[in-house]
Each structure stands twice: as C-alpha cells, then as structure tokens.
Amino acid sequence: MQKLEIKGGRKISGTITISGSKNATLPILAATILTNKKVIIKNVPIVHDVETMTTLLSAIGSSVKLNKRKKIIEIINNNALKTFAPYNLLKTMRAGVLVLGPLLAKYRKAKVSLPGGCSIGQRPIDLHLKALKKMGARIKVKNGYIVASAKKGLKGCLIKFPKISVGATENILIASCFSKGKTKLRNCASEPEVQDLINFLKKLGCKINKVGKRSIDVFGVKKLKSTTHRVIFDRIEAGTYIIAAALTNGDTKITNINPKIMSTEINLLNKMKVKIIKKKNYIIVTSPKKMKSINVITKPYPGFPTDLQAQLMVLMTRAEGISTIKENIFENRFMHVSELRRMGAHIQILGNKAKIYGGSKLYGAEIMATDLRASVCLVLAGLVAKGKTILNRIYHLDRGYEEIENKLSNCGAKIKRLK
Known about the structure:
By secondary structure, the chain is of the alpha/beta class. The protein has 14 helices and 24 strands. The chain has helices at about 20-30, 50-60, 85-90, 100-105, 125-135, 165-175, 190-205, 235-245, 265-270, 310-315, 335-340, 370-385, 395-400, 405-410; strands at about 5, 15, 40, 65, 70-75, 85, 110-115, 140, 145-150, 160, 180-185, 205-210, 215-220, 225-230, 250-255, 275-280, 280-285, 295, 320-325, 345-350, 355, 365-370, 390, 415-419.
C-alpha cells in the first residue's frame, strides 16, 4: 500500500494551479445519464472518485472517453443503459448514489447499491428516498441495495427538504428534469457545485429556475441535447493550499479560481491575520509572523465548509491563544485529532466542539489517514512538523486531490510517494 513521506520545515512558495472540482464533476457525470446526445466535460480533476464514476457509467452502458492529459471526458449514450449499479463500484464513493435519480427518472426503475465513501458520519440517504417516494416511486432497501420503480414515471410535486443536503438536492434536481409537470424544491443546498450542476442541466435543455436562495423550480422535459461544459474550480483544494502557504510562512499564488466564491474562507483567514490579495482569477497568500486565534462553526454554503475544518485545525495550532471549531455538519469528523495529537498538537474534544491550543510544536511521526479531508490535514501537519512524517492509507487522499505531491514539491515541499 502506498505512503507519503514528508520532511517538514520548508516554506510553500510559488504558484499552484487549482484543478476542477471533484464535487461538481461527480453529479454532472451522473446527470449525463439523462441525455442520448454527446456531452463533453472539460476541466475535470483526474482523481480516483472521478475515475470510479466514469467506470460506473461505462459499466451501465455509456460510451465514455477520458483524456487525462487534456482533462476532458466525452460521453455518448447510444443505447438504453442498464439500471443496475453494483456494490463493487459504489463501495468507495458516496456520490455513486447520484445515479439513482437519473436512472429512475429516465428508465422508471433502478437498482443501486447503498453507497460507501469516508467514515465521517452516517450521512443517511433517507432524504433522497423520501423525496423520490413523494414523486411517485416505490422504493425498498434489500440486501444492501436500493430497489426503486416508477412505472408511470416520476411526477412533479412540492419537496421541502427537512434539512439542507447537497447530495439530496443534486439527486432530486436531476430526477426532476424528467418528471411530469413542475417540481418545486425548497430548503435546497446552495453550494457553488449545485449551481454548476444547474448550469450544466440548463445547457442540456432542462428548464430550471432559481426562485430564491434555497428554492428551485424544475419543469419536466422529454428530450435533451448535446452540450459542452467546463467544471468550476475546486474551492476545497484552493482552501487547502491557501492554508498550506499560511501554515509554512510561504508566499504563494493560487490560480484558476474565483475568489468571490471563497469570500467566507478568505475573510476568516484575514481575521487570523493571513494576508490575501484578491485578483480576478487568482489570489496571493502571505503568512504573518503572528496569527490570531479564532472561533469557527461549520455551516452549509455560504458558511464555513466542513470540508476545510480539518485543514484549518492544523493552522490553528500555530495561532496565539485558544481557537475553537464547532462541527455542525457531520457527527464524526474529528477522527484526525488523535493523529494530530500524536504529532504534538494540544487539542481537546467535547462532543461536536474542538478546542485547539495555539503554539503547539508538531513533530514528524508515522500516522494514518481515516478519510479524504483528514488525510490532507495530516499532509499539512507533516509540512510544518519537525523531522519526517510517514502518512499511511493515502488512497483516501487520491480520491480527491490531483497530483498533490507534485503541486507541493513544485513549491518547495519535501514530499514523495513510497510504494
């Protein structure tokens, strides 16, 4: 099993180009099931989750061409697709359940494995299933599979999600495009990745109106068209490298981004005294000599993202005083704390709240990743730790970060992959 070796104490300075968003690419790929016309998707990140989704689409009958060098995926659905998504293709990827909505909407039946992915909480899919049932689907869960049917097709209706869910919003949004009549979605997720999915669906010919910050109306259609779409940048990857620069006293240019989308993160880091100069499609990050402590609560967009919580925690170990993070999205997302403690961090956990004592000196150690964002947080810790750090189970990291060791090495880090 592959590992990363990191020798700490070096500044991250230079230019880092941010990849396309994994979290935007995956629902867009699932949505291609709806159309029989050619779809070209550009700026896709070459990460394991994206490759797994393309393998899944190929397995159900899509013609998929992935050009890794150009970061382009071309998809054509010439024939009727299979409506079975097996466990072996969904066991490592939560987003695989997003094929349920389009398969059910288009073919009126689907059998999809319950999803896998990171062990950061239950993340139940009951919101997906309840909404589909309200649209007329018959659903049962048997032997680890979701078995769904809608013999007369899905029907438009009012769906108010009891809590904000990115995955449920995306799944039902895609399914609604082929429903009969008008579907009114309320209390929707408003993440930029959801908006990117809406933009893609509109290009296909779907009729979608945003009627409020968290309200979307969808008018069902029967036929779609060919399109080309460029995926938005990965704001979580961008935030990770901003924190890496601030953590290591570096001066780094982060390119291929839209700083407006990251206003919350940038403003929070400014409060910690990290200097960030914003331009149209890039930012320049300069680390301060002293960093202020801060209190943070994770929230749905436009709040501070849970996917940056672990990375920010490492930065807080450098701040003066005591910082806190209250995790409001997932109930089990502090698993990285035990590994940070092994490296010398002083962190207390009380329920869903972490108290981080600044001024901790981190030391290299052999550590283990437990999920995608925890793995990259440990990479950041290794960058600033004294001595050598060995990070195990980096398959989590490869699910969502494209060429991370190359991007960091090009900016001065001593990091390499061990086999």
